[in-house]
Prior knowledge:
Blueprint: E1 19-27, H1 30-43, E2 48-57, H2 60-65, E3 73-75, H3 88-91, H4 100-108
Parallel strand pairs: 1-2, 2-3
Amino acid sequence: MDHPDQGRPVLSRDAYVDMIGRDIYNNGSETDIASQFKAIQDSYPNKMVTLSEFGNVATFSRQWEAGCTWSFFMPWYDYNRTLEPGSAAFEGEDHEFAPASWWKNAAAHEAVLWREDLPDLK
């Protein structure tokens, strides 16, 4: 169903929705990803947009420079690899969805905040 005034899909609980998530897989084109981000932002101008699930996408810095100002991001990951810290699999740089190089690129970007960067709200 479209919104009667804007021709966009209606969120049945719009008053309760704070953010819109986008899942993207196997897309190395920051230009294409940016067009998807813009389409969501244009459809829901008062909502935060998040890259809620992804794998094998353009680096964070390329996406940001193309205009994807995600509120947050979360890659799909291999949970079983995280169960044995110190193992060869855990220490490996390769990964099916977000290799260490992707994370290093994101971690070095000035727009990315980590928990340590936030004020203590207690």
